[in-house]
Backbone:
């Protein structure tokens, strides 16, 4: 199995310096990394980020995380604004284009803020915008189909052909997004801790070792499920924190993956591998019932 560590790079002034620490850990394991960067970060910190990437360009798979980190998927909670098709289109195209213009990377991949169960299944406006932007894969399936909560399901990659977009692949994330298992001092994550096949922390993690145990549980579950790759969803600003200034949790995870015989990869490389080996793809999951605005969110908990 391949292992991919991905980092959603979304905070101006904070994420790029922390990425420098993170890539230092990755270099020690010769493990490339995948990042999703917002247009706002590229606008403000693009020169610094480009210098960092250009030091070891072969290590980096650079993709879009929207322009302004706005909500782009129509899903509960409906108390938040539902994005209009025009807004989805503008956010998607601006976000992708600035990565290409300022960072000079192809930007074939896209990840929306927070993700959703089954990714962009049943989201034609999003898929249409992605096609217009020349995006060929997304990593949007980051929450469980059970109420768009964490941890995320253990899904294999699939094509959006049933939505009419056979040119776009979905490469899901797996298990806990790192920000969902710890208290990072900015409010707790919107997450329903449903019983899952993964290691299930009884409380928010504190030490790097405790965080590693959660991710190890995901990696072992992905191995048991015989997935082609296991994709971790992380954030520079929550991975490098007061309790873990040097990225020890990342180091422990990379070391464990290596000892388990996993190879390190990027999502762009995995997208290419899936195109060349379509037998790696699973049938697309059904569109979750909560995808439409008329859905009664109370039914999730009935
Ligand atoms: Zn984000």
Residues:
């Amino acid at each position: 199995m391949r292992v991919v560590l991905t980092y959603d790079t979304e905070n101006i002034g904070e994420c790029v310096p922390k990425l420098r620490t993170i890539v230092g850990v990755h270099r020690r394991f010769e493990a490339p990394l995948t990042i999703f960067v917002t247009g706002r970060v590229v606008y403000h910190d693009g020169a610094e980020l480009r210098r960092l990437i250009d030091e070891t360009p072969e290590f980096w798979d650079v993709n879009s995380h929207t322009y302004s980190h706005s909500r782009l998927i129509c899903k509960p909670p409906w108390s938040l604004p539902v994005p209009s098709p025009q807004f989805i289109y503008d956010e998607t195209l601006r976000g992708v284009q600035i990565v290409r213009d300022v960072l000079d990377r192809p930007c074939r991949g896209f990840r929306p803020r927070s993700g959703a169960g089954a990714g962009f299944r049943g989201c034609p406006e999003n898929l249409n915008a992605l096609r217009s932007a020349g995006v060929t894969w997304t990593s949007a399936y980051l929450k469980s189909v059970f109420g768009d909560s964490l941890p995320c399901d253990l899904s294999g990659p699939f094509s959006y052909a049933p939505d009419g977009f056979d040119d776009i692949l979905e490469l899901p994330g797996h298990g806990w997004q790192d920000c969902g298992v710890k208290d990072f001092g900015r409010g707790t994550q919107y997450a329903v801790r449903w019983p899952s096949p993964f290691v299930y922390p009884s409380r928010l993690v504190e030490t790097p070792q405790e965080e590693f145990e959660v991710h190890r549980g995901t990696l072992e579950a992905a191995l048991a499920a015989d997935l082609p790759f296991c994709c971790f969803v992380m954030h520079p600003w929550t991975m490098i924190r007061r309790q873990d200034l040097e990225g020890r949790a990342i180091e422990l995870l990379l070391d464990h993956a290596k000892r388990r015989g996993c190879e390190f990869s990027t999502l762009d490389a995995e997208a290419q591998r899936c195109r060349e080996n379509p037998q790696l793809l699973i049938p697309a999951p059904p569109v979750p019932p909560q995808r439409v605005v008329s859905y009664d969110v109370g039914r999730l908990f009935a």
About this structure: Helices lie at 15-28, 39-55, 85-103, 124-132, 208-224, 236-239, 248-259, 267-276. The longest strand covers residues 2-9. The chain has a mean pLDDT of 92. The chain has one domain: 2-301.
